[in-house]
Amino acid sequence: MAPTSHSAKASARAAANTSSEPVSDWLLSLGEDGLAAFLPWIAVSHPLLTLVIAAILLGQALFLIVTLYRFVRAVFARAAGRRSAVQLPGKQR
Predict the structure, then answer these.
(1) How far is residue 42's CA from residue 71's CA, in Å, rounded to a whole number?
(2) Domain-wise residue ranges, the chain
(3) CA 57, 2, 28, 68 torsion: positive or negative?
(4) Would you give the DSSP letter of residue 22?
């Protein structure tokens, strides 16, 4: 679960850092801090609820990773298609 959560956090951080306005980065950081304080408390108080929350967060993380992977793959495929379609002057294929 740790590699998945790290990948999701890194992906979300990369997506937020591309924004030119600072508010989304601040809100993301505050949300991370809130979760870091909330999850250990809820784990001690309500273990079954913690399991449900962890499963939901894991599902969201997997969805985010798959979505970003497909996006990056499409960008590279589009870039590769443009490079192969361009012919240099004087060269025949």
Answers:
(1) 35
(2) 2-85
(3) negative
(4) S
What the block records as the tokens of 31 is 């949300």
- From residue 46, alpha-carbon distances to 15, 21, 55, 59 in Å are 32, 37, 14, 20
Can you give the pTM of this predicted structure? 0.48
The yes-or-no verdict on residue 6 having pLDDT over 90 is no
Task: Look up residue 90 and give its two tokens.
Answer: 């004087």
3-class DSSP assignment, residue 19: coil
Neighbouring C-beta atoms of residue 61, cutoff 10 Å = 19
Digit-coded pLDDT (tens) for 16-62: 677 677 787 788 888 888 988 887 888 899 999 989 988 998 999 99
- DSSP sequence for 24-52: HHHHHHHHHHHHHHHHHHHHHH-HHHHHH
